[in-house]
């Protein structure tokens, strides 16, 4: 069987988009297929796969169909399913707009983490309403270890799990070939993405990220929100603050609305299109 695909990225966090409006490919994108599609040597190469389908085709999430016609069915490069992808949701919105599958400057997209609203900005960037960040229910200390060093971490869910660590220098964690160790593991029952964050100036941070199910990537939208949210609290920034976040693949901005909703603003780019044999 051959399927069509579109390659896209948001600050170089890259994805293979698989159009599947009627849900015919549900169940076909198993771990083996996703690993082949995302393989950078033997496949197309990407951090994740996004099956673009109608929400009504998603049995478990069909209840969201009244609020959002389209569903982002997201998988990490290792085939695992994730609740949300802040860069992927912008790329999928860009695809739906370019294909004229949706109209108007505001688009609601369903995800496993709930419905996310995407706004097209006059400068061509996209802003996503990312929901509220949630801290851990316990005050238990948590740590991340990597490259022979250990840092205290702040766990936060957006809504996927993140461990945010402040470092003096982004080189401190080393090459990040192995997954950082999360301690205690019981605080992260579904593992976590890890953000190593350094200050760059007032309301300006930079980060490296280890993505659960992928490895080190050049950006992570939910991770950028998690890091900015933790930095805002550390700095006593107050609601309405806007933080600029440098990632290896570019720059994003996070604003906290007075009601606590996090807004993520950044680019979304579509590239190569083709067909691939599964
Ligand atoms: N790159 C994404 C996050 C993708 C999911 C993540 N790896 C997880 O398993 O939680 C983003 O831009 O948010």
Automatic annotation (TrEMBL):
Key word Endoplasmic reticulum present: no
GO process annotations (BP): lysine biosynthetic process via diaminopimelate
Organism ancestry: Bacteria, Bacillati, Actinomycetota, Actinomycetes, Jiangellales
Entry GO MF terms: diaminopimelate epimerase activity
A UniProt-annotated Pfam family: DAP_epimerase
Could be important to modulate the pK values of the two catalytic cysteine residues (site feature) positions: 162, 211
Pathway: Amino-acid biosynthesis; L-lysine biosynthesis via DAP pathway; DL-2,6-diaminopimelate from LL-2,6-diaminopimelate: step 1/1
Alphabetized UniProt keyword annotations: Amino-acid biosynthesis, Cytoplasm, Isomerase, Lysine biosynthesis
Similarity comment: Belongs to the diaminopimelate epimerase family.
Subcellular location: Cytoplasm
A GO cellular component annotation in the UniProt record: cytosol
Principal subcellular localization: cytoplasm
Keyword Amino-acid biosynthesis attached: yes
Subunit structure, interactors included: Homodimer.
Transmembrane regions: none
EC top class named in words: isomerase
Active site location: 85, 85 (proton donor), 220 (proton acceptor)
Biological role stated in the UniProt entry: Catalyzes the stereoinversion of LL-2,6-diaminopimelate (L,L-DAP) to meso-diaminopimelate (meso-DAP), a precursor of L-lysine and an essential component of the bacterial peptidoglycan.
Name of the coding gene: dapF
The protein's name in its UniProt record: Diaminopimelate epimerase
Enzyme Commission designation: 5.1.1.7
Catalyzed chemical reaction(s): (2S,6S)-2,6-diaminopimelate = meso-2,6-diaminopimelate
Gene3D superfamilies, alphabetized: Diaminopimelate Epimerase, Chain A, domain 1
Organism for this UniProt entry: Jiangella asiatica
Tree of life domain: Bacteria
Binding site for substrate: 13, 76, 86-87, 160, 193, 211-212, 221-222
